[in-house]
Amino acid sequence: MVSEWYEGVTLSSELFPGGEAIYRLTLANRGTAMLSDFRLGFSGPGRIGLESSVTNGSFVTQLSNFVEIAPPPGFTLPPGADWVVDFDNLAHPIRHWTDGATTGFLILADGSTRSLRTVPTTLYTMDTPPKRGTVRFPVPAQPPVPVSIIPWPLSVAVKGRRTAPSGLAPKGAGGTDAEAAVEGFEQLSSILFPGEGLCRPEREGGYPVELVPGSGGKEGYAIDFAPDGARVTAETRTGFFYGLITLGQMLRGARGKLLEFSFPTAGRIEDAPSYGWRGCHLDVARRFYSSADVTRFVALLAWNKLNVLHWHLSDDEAWRVEIDAYPELTRKAAWNGYGLAVPPLLGSGPERAGGYYAKADIRRIVAVAELFGVDVVPEIDVPGHCYALLQAVPQLRDPGENGLYFSVQGFPNNCLNPGVEATYGVVETIFGEMVDLFPSRYFHVGADEVPHDAWETSPAARALGARLGSDGTAPLQAHFLQRVQAFLAEKGKITGAWEEASQGGGIDKAGSYLVGWKDTAISQKLAGEGYDVVVAPAQAYYMDMAHSEEFAESGAAWAGFSSLENTYRFEPAAGWSEAERAHLMGIQGCIWNEPMTDRAVFDRLVFPRLSAIAETGWSANRDFARFTALVGLMPNMYGNYEDN
Ligand code: ACM
Question: What is the structure's pLDDT at 44?
């Protein structure tokens, strides 16, 4: 049911900072009718817990960042008046405008809801408007290099200058890797640059590009330039594809910036990546992204020569994959809304919002990704982060569990219980359906942020602990994960997990990899213990963190902030021994979606930091000045820039 806007009534919010920060909501009635007998619902990434005190109203319900409050009994709000409510002692501080309430709504006496015009949160005394959209990086008049390529290749020894060709006419022999690479490149260009004619036949002025099998390893390539054409040499389809992307970037630079860049007539580019794993994680649970969005995102990864999409498909807030055996997962847990199994969260409104991917959608995305050299690694986050799943499949709870524990995000009892035997059957059925959808060698099972007191009051969990002869949460988690890993190994999969999967005895090092996210010291230690690791430190590679401390910046702050330069300069293996480096698979950026309240926020937070991470993953030769001179030519997701 759509929730109509309540005309003339506006919700705004303001933060009064300091040790005793106050978060003030103002409901302004500028309509013509008296408001009475109503309650107010709102959510946003900043959390107001029940331990917060509220003046001029009272809590009705609260779950994670969803709050419903009521005015004092008998309260009325006449036209022209404001209802002002102050909260203190927030459960999660508000540091940026995107932390505040982004969606407010009224719940009327008959239980119906009406949406409110909700103004972005401001900081007391601050008059800077919220910052949204990708920061512009204009190409300087004299860039330090004559060609525009990101990530920068291993060796660029080009000579001569010619006018930019109007498009590329790549040719690979039929039925070969080269031909498949051409098909991939044509699809990629039409997704990212529709109407540009980046690929065109020679009769339409296309610049001949011959694709010739040769050396280059798994992803490398070489390009030899002549005045009237180029030759790409590679050993694999991905190598050819990356050679074409390099040519496409050079052409777009030279065609768009006629005086700044040129196109060579001779010389050679040789290229190969530094790391095998160059990934990006995308959380589609906190906020849903359509198949079309995900497809474009995969194309953007490929244009940056990133080769893994770590697709975070479930979390406390939602479940996103069609599972035949459990239709209630997508019927109930794919949606947020007032009165539904999962309430409005992170700024979703009162009406049903969200969505899920049918199996056919996933197959299509995986097939396009394959064509673009991107391995799609699914993540189903267990045993923690399962609030939505447990709302849909409540029979997995231990009926004897009588206490509450809370996740760091404020969800109560949100973990699958290792002591409930039925849990394994459900997880194996779900994973069994999913391994057929995802051809990747890897399957990521989450394992992050299980509260340290999870299952403490569950008799079933305590009985399992006694049987195992262990005490506490971590060994139970390890037991659960070991069983899941054994199941996935039988299906031929390597189990991926966040770094916490090493706790309580850990999972088997053979047949697993861990993503280190808290800081690199932990990743280094795990590599030293023999775990294969991918580093994704929140302080540099979590693209949901704001670019700076400024309140007007979009984004989160729990891991600090990361400027483009900080992200770019992060050195994954600094101080690692040879033995530790042998276990470093590569790097990945992470896109968590709590603060991505709209598309312009996504564009601001992700770009161009995504390209900074890509350059670290690929290039042996990094240079921030060169990077900033070129990065303005890289596409973003939705076309929002800070000045439009
Ligand atoms: C994580 O950020 N919880 C992996």
Answer: 80
Pick the last residue of a domain from 238, 271, 304: 271
Tokens 């609260």 correspond to 62
Question: Are the C-beta atoms of 464 and 419 separated by less than 8 Å?
Answer: yes
User: Each residue of 189-219: pLDDT tens digit?
Assistant: 999 999 999 999 999 999 999 999 999 999 9
Q: Do the strands 512-516 and 494-498 form a parallel or antiparallel pair, or are they unpaired?
A: parallel
CB of residue 86 inside a 6 A radius of ligand 1: no
- Which CATH number characterizes residue 33's domain? 2.60.40.290
Asked whether 451 and 405 are in contact (CB, 8 A), the reply is yes
**Which residue from 368, 404, 223 is spatially nearest to 295, judged by alpha carbons?**
368
Four-CA torsion 392, 397, 401, 407, nearest 10 degrees: -60
- Strands 5-16 and 113-118, by their bridges, are parallel
Distance (angstroms) between ligand 1 centre and the Cα of 255 equals 42
- Going from the Cα of 528 to the center of ligand 1, the distance in angstroms, rounded, reads 21
| Global pTM exceeds 0.90 | yes
Instruction: Answer whether 498 contacts ligand 1 (Cβ < 6 A).
Output: yes
pLDDT at 19: 79
Whether residues 103 and 206 share a domain: the answer is no
Q: Please work out whether the CB of residue 270 comes within 6 Å of at least one atom of ligand 1.
A: no
With H, G, I as helix, E, B as strand and everything else as coil, classify residue 343. Answer: coil
Give the pLDDT confidence score for residue 422 in this predicted structure.
98
- Is 517 a pocket residue for ligand 1 (Cβ < 6 Å)? yes
Contact of 277 with 586, CB cutoff 8 Å: yes
Asked whether residue 184 carries a pLDDT value surpassing 90, the answer given is yes
Instruction: List pLDDT tens digits, range 45-101.
Output: 778 887 888 999 999 999 999 999 999 999 999 999 999 999 988 878 899 999 999
Q: How far apart are CA 51 and CA 91, in angstroms?
A: 8
- Map tokens 């704001």 to a residue: 546
pLDDT tens sequence across 99-149: 999 889 999 999 999 999 999 999 997 778 999 999 999 999 999 999 999
What was the pLDDT predicted at 116?
A: 96
The CA dihedral of 392, 393, 397, 402, to the nearest 10 degrees, is 30
Q: Is residue 541 part of a domain?
A: no
Name the residue range of residue 246's domain: 155-271
Of all protein residues, the one whose alpha carbon is nearest to atom 2 of ligand 1 is 517
Q: Is 598 in the pocket of ligand 1 (CB under 6 A)?
A: no
Query: How far is Cα 220 from Cα 611, in angstroms, rounded to an integer?
Result: 19
* Pocket flag, ligand 1, residue 542 (CB < 6 Å): no
Q: Is 449 in the pocket of ligand 1 (CB under 6 A)?
A: yes
pLDDT tens digits along 213-237: 999 999 999 999 999 999 999 999 9
Q: What atom in ligand 1 is closest to the CA of residue 449?
A: 3
Q: Name the domain count of the chain.
A: 2
Query: Are 42 and 83 contained in the same domain?
Result: yes
How far is the centre of ligand 1, averaged over its atoms, from the C-alpha of 447 (Å)?
9
Region of residue 188 (phi > 0: left; psi between -120 and 50: alpha; otherwise: beta):
alpha
Give the pLDDT of residue 78. Answer: 98
DSSP state of 131: P
**Cα gap 210→243, rounded to integer Å:** 11
The whole-angstrom separation of Cα 563 and Cα 425 is 45
- How deeply is 49 buried, as exposed, middle or buried, from its count of CB atoms within 10 A (0-12, 13-18, 19+)? middle
- CATH number of the domain within which 218 lies: 3.30.379.10
Q: Which of 449, 544, 558, 591 to mutate to test the pocket of ligand 1 (most atoms within 8 A of CB)?
A: 449
